[in-house]
Amino acid sequence: MDRRDARGIIEIDSELNKIQDADLLLERILFEARRVVDAEAGSIYVREGEKLAIKYSQNALKEAELAPGSKLIYSDFSIPIDEKTVSGYVAKTGTSVNIPDVYHIPSGCPFGFNPYYDEASHYRTISTLTVPLKTSSSSLLGVIQVINAKDKKGNYVPFSKEDELLVSHFAANATEALLRAYMTRSMILRMIKLAELRDPKETGTHVARVSGYAAEIYDRWAFNHGVADKTKDKMKDNLKLAAMLHDVGKVAISDLILKKPGRFTPDEYAVMQAHTYFGARLFDDPQSDLDRIAADVALTHHENWDGTGYPGKVDLFTGKPLEIDAEGKARRLKEAEIPLPGRIVAIADVFDALMSRRVYKEPWEPDQVYEEIHKLSGVKFDPEVVDAFFQVKPLIEQIRLRNPEHEEKEEEKPKPAVEDTHGR
Q1: Percentages of the chain per state (helix, strand, coil), in multiples of 5
Q2: Do residue 143 and residue 18 come from a single domain?
Q3: Domain count, the chain
Q4: How far apart are CA 318 and CA 89, in angstroms?
Q5: Run of H or E residues at 57
Q6: Is 331 exposed, middle or buried (0-12, 13-18, 19+ CB in 10 A)?
Q7: What 8-state DSSP symbol labels residue 358?
Q8: How far is the C-alpha of 250 from the C-alpha of 198, rounded, in Å?
Q9: Residues 165 and 216 occupy one common structural domain
């Protein structure tokens, strides 16, 4: 797309409005902002109180050095909303800043440039254009920064006045899409909080981790299978939200079982299994692809690849078997009978459970967990999904670091010694 093509800008706006998950939308906003002004790199931050938290960082030059299908890993950090950094200044003042060369910022500017990341990554930042993400009522949602504009010959050039207009227009429209995505997430999180009132294990951080794991596992699975980008992106968007609702059916299970401080008896375990079809029942009248995928996830994320899981082929409203096995029980699903979203969330959920503290167990050591996942390939889990899981292991670990179990996560996060990943 020619960056001056107004029709192309409108098409991007339309595509952004179709994305439901806020995190995936932020990633796409950064990508499209870079593309529209031919920027080699960039970062996007969201406002968290009086700080800006990094959400995504992209760098086409560095990404080209990675193996196909791999993604950049970057530090998770935040910077104050003040005038000391470019991003902080833009957030504080609500005005855009266009710098032709960050190593020659005029002495009268209140902000400076920290060259640490360039030195550590062997990358040279030259030009930056930093724009606030503001709502129509001037509330700050975040900041987007594009880095190193390139001309048609691939030479680095400053961002132009026209670039400023393009990114500012893009940011304004993207912010409206982002508000809608935040509203969608807010509604889902309310459902999660309802489940959390019933089941203390069903926390916001748990579902955030499972959701994040599932999205990255699917992304790699889709790459391995040559799934077209448009199909992949739509499925990833729906799966990320659906995975958050994998255990929502627990709201229908008795507190005596949900909050039992120990392992279940066989009878209690049978009652607990009903949360799968209780959850799927919420989406029994599907209005969208999200509803259908959420139903599949809720119903089948405890089915096993070898056919030993639950609940099997049951009626969603009675729990009675629709098909009978040799033992007179509901016939279990196996292998490809299990919908792909269920097979993916199965491994994401088990991984997080093993890594986490429960009332009946301490967290396993990471090496033990990874060994267990390997061991269960072809037994509990789809082998191809296990392969994808291990291929995105660094991303899985990053997601876990970003969503720690305790509320005091800001204090628990390791802080970089200096600003990292374009903390401009």
Answers
A1: 50, 15, 40
A2: yes
A3: 2
A4: 59
A5: strand 51-59
A6: middle
A7: B
A8: 7
A9: no
In a domain? residue 85 = yes
Size of the chain in residues? 424
CA nearest to 246, candidates 210, 281, 204, 287:
210
Q: Return the SS3 of 24.
A: helix
Shared domain check, 265 and 208: yes
Structure tokens at 167: 């990114």
CA distance linking residue 146 with residue 307, whole number of Å: 49
Domain range holding 122?
6-180
Do both 302 and 265 map to the same domain? yes
Examine residue 296 and state whether it is found in any structural domain, yes or no: yes
Question: HEC states along 387-401?
Answer: HHHHHCHHHHHHHHH
Helix (H) or strand (E) holding 54: strand 51-59
Q: In angstroms, rounded to a whole number, what is the distance separating the alpha carbons of residues 37 and 63? A: 18
Of 28, 164, 182, whose CA–CA distance to 90 is shortest? 164
By CB atoms closer than 10 A (0-12, 13-18, 19+), residue 81 is buried
Distance of CA 135 to the CA centre of its chain: 23
Kindly report whether the global pTM for this prediction surpasses the value 0.85.
yes
CA angle 120, 125, 131 (to 5 degrees): 120
**Residue 103 gets which letter from DSSP?**
G
Give the H or E element holding residue 58: strand 51-59
Max Cα–Cα distance, the chain, nearest Å: 81
Residue 300 shares a structural domain with residue 374: yes
User: Does residue 411 fall inside a structural domain?
Assistant: no
Q: What is the per-residue pLDDT across 235-262, written as a single tens digit (0 to 9) for each?
A: 999 999 999 999 999 888 888 888 777 7
Q: Are residues 79 and 31 in the same domain?
A: yes
The CATH number covering residue 130 comes to: 3.30.450.40
Whole-Å CA distances, 360 to 199, 250, 260, 367, 400: 14, 18, 9, 20, 21
The span from the CA of 247 to the CA of 155, in Å, is 51
Peptide bond into 311 cis (omega under 30): yes
**Pairwise CA distance, residues 416 & 128, whole Å:** 22
The pLDDT of residue 190 is: 87
- Matching residue, tokens 């060369």: 101
Find the helix packing angle between 340-355 and 229-244, rounded to 10°. Answer: 50
Per-residue model confidence as pLDDT tens digits over 316-364: 999 999 999 988 899 999 999 999 999 999 999 999 999 998 766 789 9
d(CA 305, CA 146): 45
Residue 112 within a domain: yes
Residues 159, 214, single domain; the answer is: no
Q: List, for the chain, all residue ranges whose pLDDT scores fall below the cut of 70.
A: 1-10, 198-203, 359-360, 406-424
